[in-house]
Amino acid sequence: MKTTWDDKEEKFYEREVFSSIDFTETPLKNWEFYKCKFEKCIFSNCDLSNITFEDCTFDGCDFSMASVKNSGFRNAVFTECKLLGVNFSPCSKLMFSFQFEKCNLNYAVFLGRNLKNTPFIDCSLKEADFSDADLTACKFTQSDLTLTRFSNTNLEKADFRGALNFSIEPEYNKMKKAKFNVFQLEALLYKYQLDVD
């Protein structure tokens, strides 16, 4: 069912479609969305505290600088979305699972979060911060990791094949069975200034 946003009093939405809606003028605290679809919606700079998105999809939406304190995202799928500078660290720990494809996550923060098995496919993650995060078995296929921070990060079984512009210091991260292309190994050794042919 397609919904036009009219600031209803309802706090729970199930299987609704929201298209081209600007949520920046509407207080959304404590709302719940279940199996909803959001198309080209604007959430930039919104306070999304205590909102729950379960099994929702987001296509072409803008979440730049949104506040997500205690927000829940379970099985949230983001495609071609802007999530510039979003700090995911204060999100709910109980509802925190994503898929990202063709998204702009520059300057996003995932400090200390469990992101096991999360796919970041063809995303821009420039200067994102994954310090102290668990990225076990994550995929970064075709993603740009320029100046992305990995410190005390669990990267075991993470798949970096096809990832671009990353620099990771193996001695400060767990990297057992992480996957790389042969030509990417230089990015793991850059700080040692080795001459590799």
TrEMBL record:
Q: Which InterPro entries match?
A: 5peptide_repeat, PA_immunity-related
Question: What residue stretch is flagged as signal peptide?
Answer: none
The record's Gene3D superfamilies line, in alphabetical order, gives: E3 ubiquitin-protein ligase SopA (2.160.20.80)
Which Pfam family, an example, fits this chain? Pentapeptide_3
Q: What is this protein called?
A: Pentapeptide repeat-containing protein
Q: Which domain of life is it from?
A: Bacteria
